[in-house]
Amino acid sequence: MSEETVAQRVIRIIATNKKMAPEEVSPATRFEDLKMDSLDALNMIFALEEEFDIDIPNEEAAKMKSVDEAIHGVEELLKAKSSASN
After folding, report:
1. Whole-prediction pTM
2. Does residue 64 contact residue 70 with C-beta atoms inside 8 Å?
């Protein structure tokens, strides 16, 4: 089995969080379309932090309004983490 991409992992986490099939979630999906409340958002942030072993600052989390923004936010934090460890 091939390694999941960051996007696939983020989508899987969001789908699991909302008790949906991953196929029902795309990068274009907005969180308001998923009827995500603040508790859902908090649980998603915790799940992303755990999955990727990163810390998502509150100001970054507040900017995430769609699946695509969450994917890009995680990718940027992973890049920053890898360059900090080099």
Report:
1. 0.91
2. yes
